[in-house]
Here is the input.
Amino acid sequence: MMNEAKRARTSHSIHELIATRWSPYGFDARPVSESDLRSLFEAARWAASSYNEQPWRFIVARKKDAAEFERMLACLVEGNQAWARRAPVLALAVARLHFSHNDKPNPAAQHDIGMATCSLQLQATALGLSVHPMIGILPQRAREEYTIPQGYEALTALALGYAAELDALDDTLRRRDEAVRLRKPLSELVFARTWKRTAAWVEDPTGESS
Amino acid sequence: MMNEAKRARTSHSIHELIATRWSPYGFDARPVSESDLRSLFEAARWAASSYNEQPWRFIVARKKDAAEFERMLACLVEGNQAWARRAPVLALAVARLHFSHNDKPNPAAQHDIGMATCSLQLQATALGLSVHPMIGILPQRAREEYTIPQGYEALTALALGYAAELDALDDTLRRRDEAVRLRKPLSELVFARTWKRTAAWVEDPTGESS
Here is the structure.
């Protein structure tokens, strides 16, 4: 169900999937079907990457396997454990740090994990699911728990499932999940000719966009 | 126009936008409207980021401003200049390297540029446009050309526009743009319990997905 407070207040027209994607703190207990899980990671699989390296690997734990879920939860920083334990599925996104074709460092590895994660998020949105990525994890703990080899490193964790109804949340989570999504204005993000000079077309002087 | 060779050969159902996104080498000369440019960067603007830092900034150059276009083209490595000069629009994606709220290094900065770029790519797909991100740039040259301050760094360049008809391309670009898109199988990407152990649900033993 769409949380209308979370629809982006856009200044210019964007695709519905992008406008309605958001990252909840509160998740419903409802499990995610295996078919949907396959679609989520299939979407990540088809993201773009430098040299088509596909530096992304995922380790996934579902709540129905309670011991595995707790193992993965323990790889998050405490502040994230507090809310992420509500999610029915957790995943670690692990980056391959070197290129396969020449074994040199891949300067795009983290960037490309971000691309794959965004693709997964938007697929989730299409399925009525939500994903909350976290940089706040314990990479060394993840390495030990899952025998992640040198040359790879856990970068983020993903909490995924169905966003909870606001009424089902305690005050802290509810306040987070009912807050309006805020962004810097486009004029502070898109420049031309030199740093901090807003591109002229950003201002839409013609009223061309609606 | 959809290049059917570039539709992902998916193993599991994914959203049409994600299946049809691809990164061309060959671009058509047709310019991109200002309204579409606004939508592209608006889509980037609404991506998720750690602490909602929104560490992305973009500097944009259009071919109709020939001197500016050449200035930006010179910030790419030579191999990328060769094909990217066909695109009607170039952009540099610049990362803010520290958090605004505490001035500490933002370990998600590059990852979050990737999230914003994926969002922009999928918005482009929705508009019939294509985006090709490149990590092969000259960050120091970009810093000098655009007075990018310390604390920020150019991470990627984006070539964007309409993908060229294959018949309009020379053999080298045509071969790249007509090649089938390849990805590792999902079984090599999604693990459970330990490294390299494929999650059981990835294999789809029930034939639940089609």
Remarks:
- The domain at 4-182 of chain A is CATH 3.40.109.10 (NADH Oxidase).
- The longest strand of chain A covers residues 152-161.
- Residues 109-126 of chain A form the longest helix (18 residues).
